[in-house]
Design goal:
This is Xaa-Pro aminopeptidase. Belongs to the peptidase M24B family. It holds the Pfam family AMP_N. This protein is α+β, with helices and mostly antiparallel strands. Helices cover 39% and strands 14% of the residues. The chain has 16 helices and 17 strands. The protein has a five-stranded mixed beta sheet with strand order 6-5-4-1-7. Strands 9-10-12 form a three-stranded antiparallel beta sheet. A three-stranded antiparallel beta sheet has the order 13-16-17. The longest helix has 24 residues, at 167-190. It is globular and about 70 Å long. Residues 246, 258, 260, 431 line the site of one manganese (II) ion.
């Protein structure tokens, strides 16, 4: 945990923003896999972690602004629980570390909220995503599940606060990236023909676990990099394949890293692979170099798309004017997703609070309909203190080729004849994480090899 004053200061700032009523932040529960006592690994809710820092299930934090009280609701272990789990730090002591001196049994939360409701005081809560917490809130607030109305004021205040990272949070993210970088180097060193994708995942998971880190998200380690969030891991690596490794570690305190590298199973890239890799790399560096406070990330996304189009045109896969191609969304044949997203306690930071609130403004809302832009999670002006990913890619998706070709879609910009020849190419992504500064950006974590030469150097050594 950070110091107790960290959590106290964060709550004080939140109280100033909300001004009136009761804020209730539910912690997460241990979700059952196949029966109640066989559970998925516990992961605390990130907003709860931000304001209270306590890593325990079945607790809630309450901030009563009007009565100036802060309370952790939860139950100390009774003798039955002690028999099974052993003695642990008490909830009282954990709460003191979060700067909260008052704890009450969990069942008291219902009375507290009923009373606040009776007195017509606003009860602010965030959008619940765990089913248990949805049902709990429905019961606590005596509202049908479909009528739970999260507090927009609270969402906006939390997003405002969590978006600007404190120096100690940057240190955590850099810790996550230190381990993430080492995971990537390890993967590049040990991958060899005949190995299964899941063997590589297991090796990097062990590397992280040996330092008490977990994965920040299910890794994408695949020879089918064109499948954006591929979770199938049973393919074998063959000479000539590209391995796309999108994996990141999470620190014990919950901060994420999110890196992607793409490397050949063979010692070297083929000419085709090298050409498209360098197109993605140029798009990456062009986008990265635009970043500073005040620049709109949607413009950076569109610049990355334009650079991709120019590179794909040089290779012969696209044609025509690059700006017109991007304006017509023709690049989404190759780049179907967004350039990046905020990152912090969540790999897609605060996505549970709503992309519109995290990545957009009321003046420029998210485009929810246009293929490509609807997957851009961040489309607003950058501010110093934001942490985000930059992750352009080229993904050649056979089904998409067939669909667009049949519709003759964007045929003035896409060379479908040559594209047929690339239909089994797979995908390439390059992803790093950055801190936005007033006049630029800072790469977070150690530099991880990125050029064709650097990657081939490692592959040659490991296969020799
Ligand atoms: N790791 C998922 C992503 O890059 O968004
Ligand atoms: Mn990623
Ligand atoms: Mn990412």
């Amino acid at each position: 945990m950070f110091s107790s004053s960290t959590y106290q200061n964060r709550r004080t700032q939140l109280k100033h923003e909300i001004t009136h009523g009761v804020i209730v932040l539910l912690g997460n529960i241990e979700n059952p896999i196949n029966f109640e006592h066989n559970t998925y690994p516990f992961r605390q809710d990130s907003s709860f972690l931000y304001y209270f820092g306590i890593q325990a299930p079945y607790i809630a934090g309450l901030i009563d602004i009007d009565e100036n009280r802060e309370i952790i609701f939860g139950d100390e272990l009774d003798m039955d629980a002690l028999v099974w789990t052993g003695r642990q730090e008490t909830l009282k002591d954990k709460s003191l570390k979060a700067g909260v001196s008052e704890t009450l049994p969990f069942k008291e939360l219902e009375n507290y909220l009923q009373k606040a409701k009776f007195n017509n005081r606003p009860i602010h809560f965030l959008p619940p995503y765990q089913s248990y917490n949805k049902i709990l809130l429905s019961r606590l607030l005596d509202r049908h599940l479909d009528e739970l109305l999260p507090s927009e004021k609270l969402i906006k205040a939390v997003v405002k606060q969590r978006s600007i990272k404190e120096p100690q949070e940057i240190e955590q993210i850099e810790e996550a990236l230190r381990v993430s970088t080492e995971m990537h180097l390890l993967a590049m060193k040990i991958a060899k023909p005949g190995m299964k994708e899941y063997e590589l995942v297991n090796a990097i998971q062990k590397y992280a676990a040996d330092q008490n880190f977990t994965f920040a998200y299910p890794p994408i380690v695949t020879v089918h990099g064109e499948i954006l969030h591929n979770q199938f891991r049973e393919n074998s690596f063959k000479n000539g394949d590209l391995v796309l490794n999108d994996s990141g570690a999470e620190t014990p305190m919950g901060y994420a890293g999110d890196l992607t590298r793409t490397f050949p199973v063979s010692a070297t890239f083929t000419d085709r692979q090298k050409d498209l890799y360098n197109v993605v790399l140029k798009s990456f560096t062009d986008a990265r170099d635009m970043m500073k406070s005040g620049v709109n990330f949607k413009d950076i996304h569109l610049k990355a798309a334009k650079t991709l189009v120019e590179g794909l045109t040089a290779v012969g896969l696209m044609k025509g004017n690059a700006e017109d191609a991007v304006a017509n969304h023709a690049h989404t044949m190759f780049f179907q997703c967004g350039l990046g997203h905020m990152m912090g306690l969540d790999v897609h930071d605060m996505e549970d609070l709503g992309e519109q609130y995290v990545g957009y403004t009321e003046a420029e809302p998210k485009d929810k309909n246009t293929f490509g832009l609807k997957s851009l999670r961040l489309g607003k002006e950058l501010e110093a203190g934001f942490v985000l990913t930059v992750e352009p890619g080229i993904y050649i998706i056979p089904d998409l080729i067939d669909m667009w070709k049949a519709e003759k879609k964007n045929q003035e910009f896409i060379n479908y004849d040559l594209l047929e020849d690339y239909r089994n190419f797979s995908g390439i992504r390059i992803e790093d994480n950055f801190l936005i500064e007033e006049n630029g950006f800072r790469l977070l974590g150690p530099e991880l090899v990125k050029t064709v030469d650097e990657i081939e150097e490692i592959r040659k050594q490991s296969l020799s």
